[in-house]
Fold this sequence. Notes:
By secondary structure, the chain is of the alpha+beta class. It is built from five helices and six strands.
Amino acid sequence: xxxxxxxxxxxxxxxxxxxxxxxxxxxxxxxxxxxxxxxxxxxxxxxxxxxxxxxxxxxxxxxxxxxxxxxxxxxxxxxxxxxxxxxxxxxxxxxxxxxxxxxxxxxxxxxxxxxxxxxxxxxxxxxxxxxxxxxxxxxxxxxxxxxxxxx
Length: 151
């Protein structure tokens, strides 16, 4: 795997654990793992001075966070655990990687109500576990707090 590649085996394990048993323990593990992750962010156009791949953004960027209404009409944004998962979803879209906490803070400035990890086309079998974060979970994690815990 190239140095700037993003892979999240622990995050995939944590998502699988929540899917098997959604409990406070598995959720805490998922949240902690998200906080330690870099994510693959799809974007219709790369922001200025940003290249594809994993990077640490030391400055604010002007970018478009993709958002679409889901089947319930909620605005959601998509994010991926790795480039291969993104390519299965859309082989042609631009992307870059960033720390999960930085991405969560960007999402707070949008109308997105949820983040969907590893969405998949309903006509194909999913190859990775998926997860959703609610707006409340996004707000807590963006400040490195555990959702559902007192401040």
